[in-house]
What we know:
Layout: H1 2-19, E1 33-38, E2 50-66, E3 72-91, E4 95-98, E5 105-113, E6 120-137, E7 141-153, E8 158-163, E9 167-168, E10 176-180
Parallel strand pairs: 1-10
Antiparallel strand pairs: 1-4, 2-3, 2-5, 5-6, 6-7, 7-9, 8-10
Amino acid sequence: MRKLAAxxxxxxxxxxxxxxxxxxxxxxxxxxxxxxxxxxxxxxxxSSDTISIIGQIETDVVxxxxxxxxxxxxxxxxxxxxxxxxxxxxxxANSFKLPLSYxxxxxxxFVYRGLNESFRGEDTIDIYHNNIxxxxxxxxxxxxxxxxxxxxxxxxRLDSLVVTNSNIDNYDKENFKIYYTVIxxxx
Length: 187
């Protein structure tokens, strides 16, 4: 009986010792780029337009077709554009948090709709980055961090894009400022 109690105590000790390693994982294992919307003077503002943000990547896609005899045939469609809507019709936003691609380039399309629905437009933001896998331990897995190397934008509504912090990791900090020309009644 004593051996059984000692064995049970030893197993409980090992469970506590090795089972608690998950607590060493960071509380936020997701990495997002933080965008702030500012006016031409650098002051934060809330957009009166409805904004949708679409992520777009270029990749090769495998397509499967079912033939008349019931067999499947696959072929690759090269350089396909794949879209995903991250933010759909946000009103009054002053900042966004968006994920980056595991490829070396990420494209975001900002789609604007005015209050009277007659104005529609869009801007494209291309972000080029180096990917840095970050490994903490086996229980936590790998996170992806990024270093921004270059950006390109269109200028339909957007005036400019400024990189405020080129290192994107799992800490909550601003990485980009998006400048818009805002006309106010007191200017």
